[in-house]
Amino acid sequence: MAENSVFLEARRLTRVYRRGSEEIRALDGVSLTIRHGEFVSFTGPSGSGKTTLINLLGCLDNPSTGEMDLGGKVIYGSGNDLKEKALTRIRREVFGYIFQNFYLIPTLTVRENVALPLAFYKKPGAEGEVDRLLEMLGMGHRMNHLPGQISGGEMQRVAIARALVNRPSILLADEPTGNLDTKRSAEIGEILQDLNRNEGLTIVMVTHNSALAGLGGRKIEMRDGQAYEC
Ligand SMILES: Nc1ncnc2c1ncn2[C@@H]1O[C@H](COP(=O)(O)OP(=O)(O)OP(=O)(O)O)[C@@H](O)[C@H]1O
């Protein structure tokens, strides 16, 4: 896919949560475009809607109203929302996800954790990606360890390898360094920057870490459910 072509376009996304009789407008009309090869960071105060937005962009949740296209295909909107089966396919084939809490399976080795997505869906050549990615991320010597035997920074490297094993077009990272100290955070930041620059991976990241937010060049601040380009 040509670098700089439009990858994702969101128009007037809203997301309202209901808690009893209370209505929380977590997203209040967000429109944005993400191009292939971009590295976009979302910052903003707690409760401003960052996770809600990244979940919508990553097809993990549906908006209350609004439209979104991905690769020219309608995901939500105009009464043509994709059905769950098609969304599941997009989640597997298009996206890689990493989270603050890593979500590794404690009883599986590092290598088995990274290979896990291949049990559900395997892109051609993906088998060879397990070892390549672990080597690339400096985890080649830890392949047979369990998650409990490695550090937090190493766990996030494993989670990144797992997210990338099926060669996604876009990596979504929600607070990827939220559980890491400054040094480990900077290391994960460098890895993400290399993946973006050297492998052309599109990255969308939510972070409270201002050093990390500057890495990708494009920064969007969330305030009260709205998005502002910085
Ligand atoms: N499942 C839910 N049910 C009800 N309200 C929710 C739900 N998820 C989020 N909210 C509310 O929506 C608003 C936006 O939440 P969101 O998690 O998107 O913010 P955030 O910017 O990611 O916050 P943080 O930086 O603390 O993670 C908040 O007021 C939050 O309490």
TrEMBL record:
<dbReference type="GO" id="GO:0022857">
    <property type="term" value="F:transmembrane transporter activity"/>
</dbReference>
<dbReference type="GO" id="GO:0098796">
    <property type="term" value="C:membrane protein complex"/>
</dbReference>
<dbReference type="InterPro" id="IPR027417">
    <property type="entry name" value="P-loop_NTPase"/>
</dbReference>
<comment type="similarity">
    <text>Belongs to the ABC transporter superfamily. Macrolide exporter (TC 3.A.1.122) family.</text>
</comment>
<dbReference type="InterPro" id="IPR015854">
    <property type="entry name" value="ABC_transpr_LolD-like"/>
</dbReference>
<dbReference type="InterPro" id="IPR003593">
    <property type="entry name" value="AAA+_ATPase"/>
</dbReference>
<dbReference type="GO" id="GO:0005524">
    <property type="term" value="F:ATP binding"/>
</dbReference>
<keyword id="KW-0813">Transport</keyword>
<dbReference type="GO" id="GO:0016887">
    <property type="term" value="F:ATP hydrolysis activity"/>
</dbReference>
<protein>
    <submittedName>
        <fullName>ABC transporter ATP-binding protein</fullName>
    </submittedName>
</protein>
<keyword id="KW-0067">ATP-binding</keyword>
<keyword id="KW-0547">Nucleotide-binding</keyword>
<dbReference type="Pfam" id="PF00005">
    <property type="entry name" value="ABC_tran"/>
</dbReference>
<dbReference type="GO" id="GO:0005886">
    <property type="term" value="C:plasma membrane"/>
</dbReference>
<dbReference type="InterPro" id="IPR017911">
    <property type="entry name" value="MacB-like_ATP-bd"/>
</dbReference>
<feature type="domain" description="ABC transporter">
    <location>
        <begin position="11"/>
        <end position="229"/>
    </location>
</feature>
<dbReference type="InterPro" id="IPR017871">
    <property type="entry name" value="ABC_transporter-like_CS"/>
</dbReference>
<dbReference type="InterPro" id="IPR003439">
    <property type="entry name" value="ABC_transporter-like_ATP-bd"/>
</dbReference>
